[in-house]
Automatic annotation (TrEMBL):
PANTHER family assigned: SULFOPYRUVATE DECARBOXYLASE, SULFOPYRUVATE DECARBOXYLASE SUBUNIT ALPHA
Sequence ranges assigned to domain Thiamine pyrophosphate enzyme N-terminal TPP-binding in this UniProt record: 8-95
Biological process, per Gene Ontology: small molecule metabolic process
Keywords assigned: Decarboxylase, Lyase, Thiamine pyrophosphate
Ranges where the Thiamine pyrophosphate enzyme TPP-binding domain occurs: 202-323
Organism: uncultured Campylobacterales bacterium
Protein name: Thiamine pyrophosphate-binding protein
Coiled coil: none
Cited Gene3D superfamilies: 3.40.50.970
Record GO terms (molecular function): carboxy-lyase activity; thiamine pyrophosphate binding
Length: 357
């Protein structure tokens, strides 16, 4: 059994909830679709779970009625907001989190720890938890209302909501852009058998690197969303030549890393390639709603060097960029506007679970 997603959102609106502050998880894909479709509740896409919690706190403190929906991995990002803002100032609103599970041998090792420890983490924050009823909507709403008034986090199980398509007017059309696979294939050709380290970020970039870059030195960072640039900075500070392949949602999650990397520009060999597909491909293709962001100028003002104007969307230009990179060190940035490929398999456990490069 699953809850009727349309009715779920309607009930939230009837209960006067005003905003859904969200970092996507595939478990809540249909809730997000319906929240975007329905004009009577505001979908607030957030750069990180910490941002979602703080925005919701501001909304609640000023008379609105927000909710937060995130993935279990992101509950860690909320720690500071929960323990040093929500608890001491007694600000409550419903926080709903998916609970990602883990099977032994699975390569989604980013979920292994919280697959058993999520309730303890919530308790350590001083909150109770409740497993959200996914059969009886009345109970579900009553649980959410309890979360609105008490320090309680609601945990969402897999397949809790019925399927809802995004209305056509909200669908992204990326057909005019070259798919990411073609850029990754170029990287593979140009850097095969070199000792350059490629870091693939949480999201589909790492998965696609596994399929399209079989001959390069790849580290697939399955979790730690937002941390790829800083991980790369650590590698680069140890003398490695590093290229981080990121996504647009990954780029903004811990954007402060750019300011730290910028400080080391003259001492390192680190490049960030931002593959901008305007979406969270791996959690269901949700629009990141980041069209207002000038990624190139953010990187530039953090001390990154730009290739050409910092933007590439054609393969021949990209090749020019990779050739330049071969003979160039420093701190470099390029934003590649790209389309989407069909789903590719996740890298298997034995290639994900390495801890030395
Ligand atoms: C802290 C945290 N929050 C949320 C997620 C769920 N998550 C995994 S990938 C992803 C989006 C990735 O989008 P993007 O970086 O644009 O790459 P794409 O999948 O589009 O290639 C999200 C939200 C996560 N893994 N970790």
């Amino acid at each position: 059994m699953a809850l009727d997603t349309k009715k779920f959102i309607e009930s939230l609106i009837e209960e006067k909830y005003t905003h859904l502050c969200v970092v996507p998880c595939s478990f809540v894909k249909y809730v997000i679709n319906e929240a975007i479709n329905n004009p009577n509740i505001e979908y607030v896409p957030c750069a990180s779970e910490a941002v979602a919690c703080s925005v919701a706190a501001g909304l609640k403190m000023s008379g609105s009625s927000p909710m937060v929906i995130v993935q279990s991995s992101g509950v860690t990002n909320m720690g500071s907001c929960i323990t040093s803002l929500l608890k001491p100032y007694d600000v409550t609103f419903p926080i709903l989190t998916s609970w990602r599970t883990y099977k032994s041998g699975d390569s989604e090792i980013q979920h292994e720890h919280l697959a058993t420890e999520l309730p303890k983490l919530i308790k350590a924050y001083g909150y109770e938890y409740t497993i959200l009823d996914n059969e009886n909507l009345e109970n579900t709403i009553s649980q959410i209302n309890t979360c609105d008034e008490t320090n309680t986090v609601a945990i969402i199980k897999k397949d809790s909501f019925t399927k809802i398509e995004l209305d056509d007017k909200h669908k992204l059309n990326l057909l005019e852009y070259t798919p990411r696979s073609e850029f990754l294939t170029k990287l593979n050709e140009d850097f095969k058998s070199t000792d350059v380290i490629f870091i693939g970020t949480t999201g589909n970039t790492a998965r696609e690197m596994y399929s399209f870059m079989p001959d390069t030195n790849n580290f697939y960072m399955a979790g730690n969303m937002g941390g790829a640039l800083s991980l790369g900075l650590g590698f680069a500070m140890s003398g490695k030549k590093v290229i981080v392949c990121g996504g647009d949602a990954e780029f903004v999650m811990h954007m402060g890393g750019l300011t730290t990397a910028g400080r080391y520009r003259d001492k390192i060999d680190l490049t960030y390639i931002l593959f901008d597909n305007e979406s969270n491909k791996s959690t269901g293709g949700q629009n990141t709603y980041q069209q207002h962001i000038d990624y190139v100028n953010i990187a530039k003002s953090c001390n990154f060097d730009l290739f050409d104007n910092g933007k590439v969307n054609k393969l021949d230009k990209f090749e020019e960029f990779t050739q330049t990179l071969k003979n160039k060190s420093g701190l470099n940035f390029v934003c590649v506007k790209c389309g989407v490929d069909d789903e590719t398999p996740r890298p298997p456990l034995e290639v994900v679970k390495v801890n030395r490069v």
